[in-house]
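Below is a complete specimen:
___
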Amino acid sequence: MKKLKAFWWITVLIVSGCQSQTDVFPTDTWSEGCVELATNQGEYRLSGMCCAYAVFPLIDKAPKGSFKVSGRYYSFNGVEYASIPIEITGELTSKDPTLILSYTVGSQSKVHRLKPGRATMSCYCGCF
């Protein structure tokens, strides 16, 4: 019986040691009101903002829960969605899981404090 327990604990330690230590986000979807961050076609997509969305590459490493990555911000200009390059800074807090994303578009700084789970609201905006 003791050998079986020892084998079980060794197996648990090996398996947990083999799991990826580079998973940045403990859940697939994060949200704040209407805004939602989820994976979409091999990248992250921040959507739910009026007439705009942002995309950035999947992240496999985030030392100490923070990262900085180049992305694109798309906003509707009346005819189509225009693309603007942005730099997104993210920080994952460990106390109560909160993912803080910040970036600047033009002269406006934007900050989203996202919690695990899907968006709890659906906001409608007319894009003209």
The helical segments are 2-18. The CA atoms of residues 22 and 61 lie 5 Å apart.
